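Session log. Operator J.P. requested a structure for one protein chain; no other inputs attached. Running the standard single-chain path with token output.
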Amino acid sequence: MPAINSMDILMDWWLADVRHRFGDDYADPDAPMFPSERRDPYTGFCRRAGDDALRSGLKGAVDAFLPSWSGRPTPHVLRHFCASSLYLQGVDLKAVQELLGHEWLSTTTRYINVRDNHIEQTWVAANQRVASRLGLG
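Structure written below.
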């Protein structure tokens, strides 16, 4: 699967320059890709980031940098935002579906929020493309 917005560069950096700093188990295929800084008392290796790691990290960042948005963004809201942003930037709806891992396209369409004038803008753009192909515009 292709990486979005140079994500492959970020993952290469993480795996080459950062991941090994969390413990010697970085080459173990069962080692967590995103470990927490807490260590497992039985193995001595880093534990996996817990279920609430992203949610609490996001809450802390929002509270610190966007206090007027406090309590509103969640990982799931960010997922909707990502789907909508990709679609509005021209990513095909089927591609968004596959990136999100949805089985049904109808689920993906419920994720995407577009501006009120989106249909009108799309209609105008499509007519401009047709006119230019026919040499009318």
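Operator note: The chain has a mean pLDDT of 83.
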